[in-house]
Write a structure and sequence with these properties.
heterodimer; A: 210 residues; alpha+beta; 2 helices; 33% helix; B: 215 residues; mainly alpha
């Protein structure tokens, strides 16, 4: 007859083994679908920032990862996706971080076509106040659309600011810290693009980190 | 007597012993995700599935489990179930998984689930535990939905926004009744106020029924 302690240990081990098998089996069954979903979601979330530009192939496969320190906004890795058509560059998408949001960093996606015009801006991640700062989300207000079609010359660099700071862009009702951070990140991204345009499109793509 | 038992367990879970309203269990997800109806619905369904499966498994294995090790075993069973559910959600409902984020893995810490394993499933048969899981899970899910609905209506002035997160399709803003709303309702304090109102309403209704019975 086993002691109570041994019996308890054996039961626990048996149940742990069964549970582990269950989780392992589910993982094997779902892992491919999950990877496909992740890729599809990334492509879908990138597409709106490209406006209605035509491009070939998959933008997620053409990415560059810039580890900090880099000259783009944000102190974490910046990702650049390139879109090409017939071998010629069409546009670049920058996933960068605006550090000075009201409630922590704001991850934004800035699409810039080869001529330097903004094709679209989308907010990827933020923790701004619901109902105030979250108006930067495209699904909550059309605030982010005011950047579409703008470039460094239109308005001039000095005017890439909120109206209250003497610039040309609208703030949000009840929130100015959040939009100010976003505008600043877009301006810095445009300046970076202007300075590094050729390199951005010539660099070979980087493989998925394993 | 199965159908009578079923009705009894459902009544207990939905009203008499509602995990959120009466036992005040699982408040962390309840308060955190209920900023919209759709989030409440999603987490409600996930919790319902985990609670029902864990009740059935705990009840089915109850004869072999020594009292001393029952809690680690509940934790093992619940954690494995939640991991499986999370993977299934990621594979088949990616949008919902994204909108609920950390709260799916955090179902593990929902004390309503351990409480039902300990209080009910470890002492009752598989069928009764299945009914109990369904009743309690539905009760919790309905409360999540009701609070989500209320906070969304008051806080944003909309109904059923972001339905696309659950069912795919184009992003939808839902039915917008009023532009903007009373912001407090969607902020964390609004969750506490809404829950307090729900508990007060239940107590008021129960009190009235008692008065009716007494007269």
């Amino acid at each position: 007859m086993m002691s109570r302690v041994t019996k308890g240990g054996v039961t626990l081990a048996a149940i742990a083994a069964i549970c582990t098998t269950l989780v392992a089996a589910t993982y094997r069954l779902t892992t491919e679908r999950i990877a496909a979903n992740e890729r599809a979601w990334l492509e879908r979330s990138l597409a709106p920032a490209l406006g209605d530009l035509d491009y070939e192939g998959s933008i997620t496969e053409s990415r560059l990862i810039l580890e900090p320190p880099h000259e783009l906004p944000g102190s974490d890795a910046a990702i650049i996706y390139r879109a090409y058509s017939g071998g010629a560059p069409v546009a670049a998408l920058f996933a960068v971080t605006a550090r000075d949001g009201y409630a922590g960093p704001i991850r934004i996606l800035v699409g810039i076509d080869v001529a330097g015009t903004v094709t679209g801006v989308r907010i990827l991640e933020h923790r701004e106040t619901p109902g105030l700062g979250d108006g930067i989300e495209a699904s909550r207000s059309d605030w982010v659309h005011q950047f579409d079609g703008r470039s460094l010359g239109d308005p001039p660099v000095d005017a890439w600011q909120l109206r209250i700071d003497g610039g040309r862009f609208d703030q949000l009702t009840g929130a100015s810290v959040t939009p100010r951070a976003v505008v600043k990140a877009i301006r810095e991204t445009l300046l970076y693009f202007d300075a590094h345009r050729a390199e951005i499109f010539d660099m070979p793509a980087m493989a998925e980190p394993q | 007597m199965t159908s009578g038992q079923f009705v009894d367990r459902m009544q207990t879970g939905l009203w008499r012993q509602n995990p959120g309203l009466v036992q005040l269990l699982g408040l962390c997800p309840l308060l955190a995700v209920t900023s919209t109806f759709v989030n409440g619905l999603g987490l409600g369904i996930a919790t319902l599935v985990v609670l029902t499966c864990s009740n059935v498994l705990v009840s089915a294995t109850r004869r072999w489990i020594l009292a001393e090790i029952r809690v680690p075993i509940y934790v093992l069973i619940i954690a494995s179930l939640v991991t499986c559910i999370e993977l299934v959600f990621k594979a088949w409902f990616p949008a919902l998984d994204r909108s609920l984020g950390i709260f799916i893995p955090l179902i593990v810490t929902n004390c309503a689930i351990v409480a039902r394993a300990e209080v009910f499933a470890s002492r009752n048969g598989v069928v009764a535990s299945l009914f109990d899981g369904l009743g309690m899970g539905t009760g919790f899910a309905l409360l999540l939905m009701a609070i989500g609905f209320f906070r969304e209506l008051v806080g944003r002035g909309s109904i059923f926004s972001q339905f696309d997160k659950l069912f795919g399709g184009d992003p939808s803003a839902g039915l917008i009744l009023v532009d903007g709303g009373w912001l407090l309702a969607v902020l964390p304090p609004g969750a506490f106020f809404s829950l307090a109102l729900a508990v007060a309403l239940k107590n008021y209704l129960d009190g009235r029924q008692d008065t009716v019975r007494a007269t």
